[in-house]
Input
Amino acid sequence: MKSIFTTLIIICIASTAFSQHYQVDTLYKKGPLENRINIVILGDGFTQEQMPKFAAEARKFADFFLAYDPYTVYRDYFNFFAIRTPSKESGVSNPGTAPDAYKDQPVGNKDTFFGASFGHSIHRLVEVTKFDVLFNLMSTHLPAYDLIVVLVNTEYYGGSGGQIAVHTLNDAANTIGVHEIGHAFGRLSDEYWAGSIYGTEAANMTAISDPGSIRWKNWLNSPPVGIYKHGLEGDAAKWHKPTNGTCLMEYLDQQLCAVCREATVERLLENINPVEKIEPDTAASIDVTAGQAFKLGLLKPSRNTLQVQWHLNGMLLPFSGDEISLKGGEIPDSSALTATVFDTTTLSRRDDSRAFRSRAVSWSLKSSVPAVFKIVASSDSVCLRNEVALTAHGCAGALKWSTGETSKSIHVTPDQTTVYSCSCQVQGQSVKTAEISIHIMPLPNATATNGGPYLAGDTIKLAAAGGKTYMWRGPLFFASISPQVSIPNATLNQAGLYEVVVKDVNGCSKTAQTEVKVDPILSVPNDQDVLVSVSPNPARDYISIETKLGGKSNVKLYDQAGRELISDSFEKKTRLPLNLPSGIYLYRVSNGSRESTGKVAVQ
Amino acid sequence: MLRLSSTVAITLAGLLMIHCKPAQSTLTVGQISNYNANSPDHILFLNFRISGGVGGREKVELLSASAGDGKMKDIARSVHFPYQIKAIARYSASAVEREMVFEHPLFKGREVSDPSGHMRQVEVKATEGNVLIRLQQHSGLNQLELFSVSPEKGTVKIYTLDFN
Output
């Protein structure tokens, strides 16, 4: 039964074979499909006679897309194709049943290639209906496509997203395609509040609001990027976005914001390798006895931000171009040449991007010059707890490190200055040993303090010590590079953890924190009958607290470190004995939701 | 010509499948249309029709399958709407089995915009729809399982496609 069924399936599948071939226009072919983002533009509702119109519209969209930031910088990272699929009838189906249907748009069905139609219940929702036709077309014409945009032949506004971006020829509809590609390619979230089910962690959406750890923390000093709630209440208040009304992911008449551009560029650089050609091939050892040129074919952004670093046996060479020539007679046998390509684009401020997306090309070299066995460190002097890469060069045999490892490169994190050694055993030869000392520099003795607790309206004073440079961060996007900082007119929102990165003369850094407390000042109504009275002030042996507020009141007395010293509950009036050292103390009197705070001096 | 052959194919497939188990079928990869045995890299295109309801009540039919040459990149739109179709390719040999998540064709979210640039999400329901799965063929591929995902029923397996 199963075999019969299988056969039937195969027959039925074979019967759907897509035998017809349609003209594929290459709009922009910048490179091989496997190393480009391939966008295919399809047309629906264009008749055979209208194919030139479709071709023009397809190019118009490609140009519109490639002029958009950041795609315009990386325009050579994209291929654009258009497939000419003529429809029997011109236009698009319009059921005319939706409440928002355009009154002047003719109603009726059109026999079109992909069966695009305005919506039955939401008019502007224009979707294709013949998915099988579209899918079969792609499998036979451009199976390795990455993104599809369908242009629908009508000037009436409409479109939709999903696996396939669809939009009409209306001038305002072009950005639908770019927005949808933002979802599909950049994995961006909407920046308008689409509803609780769409609340999710993404490059431009997060539940975290801490400026020090939010996804786009590196952009907070670049307005209009900030931390904006999606809404004031409910789930919308739990989710945050980087801009408010100034991003394509929120409004179609805007550009992509800096955070969305960064995510897009990172996706692009993750998928596309800027190293397209390598000469000579790296498969075999290259004989450099008589000299040799090494060359990279690079795919450069329009503003060339590619940086090339060349290393010979781990030592940085003073060349930065795409090509380098090594002279003969100078390079020892068993050497290694490495070219590292990194895009230094300022469109991304991602932490550790160099480690994540550097592309390295390595050649093994042979030469008549005798090999020199040595160890090269990524750095011979590092701050405590930093890692160092050690690489053995010039050994054509078996390696053994003093750590017991046997690989060509090892990573170590010494807690004090340490000498590492490695032995090289070539069969039939005596063992060679190389050593290297890694010097460890201590971290600065970083401290951070503040003069609080404070009352609202006071001046917050922060102090850091232990280094040469300082970088403060704190609530409400606070940032400063001074060791001593004053923040006038303190508000409750400025209370919280302040963090300072202290860096010493060696470049070693350590982070210190200090918590700032800001208490509210009188929040009771400005009514003489209900004010809290605290007397005497200055006080000696006692203080008397009196209020005309009804019901139970509570009073607490704190020292300047915020420690609670005295607590009492009372109605109308109380007298608190004091047995405290001289100084300034803080009191807080609460009655229901009302609260009053102040300072009292004890003599 | 294309529309005619597709219509015939769909009709034929429907008629043929009336007497078959709806939850499982078998596909011989080498006999899929356009399958080029000489190509090192194959992309499978599988078109499923979904009907019946959500939350495990789906009726799944393989409408068509075809193949193309080349390599796919890891580019897929994330799906956040709670009703989804999840697909997992299974391998006889050890391979990384990755979930692919698709919009549920019978209940999905759609973005609607207006000429002023404002957008909103709307819920779209249908009685029948398609799930289009594009799959890089790795060695050892022997099954593709489809699951219905819904808040009410969780994840329910609804279909298995065996490859041989």
Q: What stands out?
A: Residues 1-22 of chain B have pLDDT under 50 and may be disordered. The helical segments of chain B are 2-17. The beta strands of chain B are 24-27, 42-51, 59-69, 84-91, 99-103, 107-113, 119-125, 128-136, 141-150, 154-163.
